[in-house]
Specification:
Number of domains of chain B: 1
Structural class of chain B: alpha/beta
Largest interface: A-B, 11 and 19 residues
CATH architecture of chain B: 3-Layer(aba) Sandwich
Radius of gyration of chain B: 16 Å
Shape of chain A: elongated
Strand order of the largest sheet of chain A: 2-1-3
Helix content of chain A: 25-40%
Structural class of chain A: alpha+beta
Number of helices of chain B: 6
Number of domains of chain A: 1
Distance between the termini of chain A: 10 Å
CATH superfamily of chain B: Class I glutamine amidotransferase (GATase) domain
CATH architecture of chain A: 2-Layer Sandwich
Oligomer: heterodimer
Strand order of the largest sheet of chain B: 2-1-3-4-11-10-9-6-7
CATH superfamily of chain A: Phosphoribosylformylglycinamidine synthase subunit PurS
Helix content of chain B: 10-25%
Strand content of chain B: 25-35%
CATH topology of chain A: Mth169, Chain: A
């Protein structure tokens, strides 16, 4: 069976997010006042396994080895089946 | 003596680097396609600028995971010189050759302009042709060049003499105004622990001939050549 995991990669707290800042400015130009705005990147990865724990373990490994850079990123993983 | 310039799909400063090393500095230099790998030993490996893998995921992230980069890491661990320029610096940082990363500029757009750099360390294999405190002119061209490292790391690198270059103004002051991409402490050229690796965002190969407006970058290649001759 295939288990799909949703991996969300975000900038760590306190990291400058220039893209978010530019988007916030543009929203402000459209008349929206936003208290905060951050960007994140989502990967949906299908993994051939019967165990959602195993899928999440592999997803974390993928984050550590490629998808995230630990200097600036944190990540969250959830199994969505 | 022989240098190599490593080519990935999307490298676009590879031939410029080879031209400077071979035609301007007079040292043999091979272009090495990443899939073919290194078929002989080299005194120095240059990872050139460009947009390897279209900057997918993060600049340099995919190229870093190719098998040839294991050979680059082995070459560095054995004391060989590795120079990463622009995308090459991003690849080198992703590969763990220095602490920290080069990420999206403080103002998130592509910047292509001449900048002033202050030479902070003039005793490394890459900078021995300069004098400490020299102010040199070299262009930058990047969107992901802001140097970021863990808390306290930039200052430690500076204290340990591992910063080769910092952005500065024409008088040599490293100010926020002279920091085009928001790099930590204006740092834009970082040496590896043993000083045989230099990763830098500015393009010395674009400033190695007077006809291009500056010869300040040539000294960097000449320094590498002097070092290799003395090894």
């Amino acid at each position: 069976m295939t288990i799909t995991v949703k991996i969300t990669i975000s900038l760590k707290d306190g990291m400058l997010d220039p893209e978010a800042r530019a988007i916030q400015h543009a929203l402000s130009d459209l008349g929206y006042t936003t208290a905060s705005l951050s960007t994140a990147r989502v990967f949906n990865v299908g993994i051939d396994t019967d165990s959602s724990e195993e899928a999440k373990r592999l997803a974390a490994e993928m984050c550590d080895r490629l998808l995230a850079n630990p200097v600036i990123h944190s990540y969250e993983i959830e199994a969505v089946e | 003596m022989r240098f190599a310039v490593l080519q990935f799909g999307g490298s676009n400063c590879d031939q410029d680097a080879q031209h400077v090393i071979e035609d301007v500095c007079g040292v043999d230099c091979d272009l090495v396609w990443y899939k073919e790998g290194f078929n002989r030993s080299y005194d120095a490996i240059v990872i050139p600028g460009g947009f390897s893998y279209g900057d997918y995921l993060r600049a340099g992230a995919i190229a870093t995971r190719t098998p040839v980069m294991q050979d680059v890491r082995r070459h560095a661990a054995a004391g060989g010189l590795v120079l990463g320029i622009c995308n090459g610096a991003q690849i080198g940082a992703e590969s763990g050759l220095i602490p920290g990363v080069f990420t999206i500029n403080k103002y998130p757009k592509f910047i292509c302009e001449w900048v002033h750099l202050k030479v902070e360390n003039a005793s490394s294999p890459f900078t021995s042709g300069y004098t400490e405190g020299d102010i040199i002119r070299i262009p930058i061209a990047h969107k992901e060049g802001r140097y970021v490292a863990g808390e306290g790391v930039p200052q430690r690198l500076l204290d340990e003499g591992r910063v080769a270059f910092r952005f500065c103004d024409a008088a040599g002051n490293c100010t926020p105004e002279s920091n085009p991409n928001g790099s930590a402490l204006n740092i834009t050229g970082v040496l590896g622990e043993d000083q045989n690796v230099l990763l830098m965002m500015p393009h010395p190969e674009r400033a190695a001939e007077s006809v291009l407006g500056s010869e300040d970058g040539k000294k960097l290649f000449d320094s590498m050549i002097d070092y290799c001759e003395g090894r």
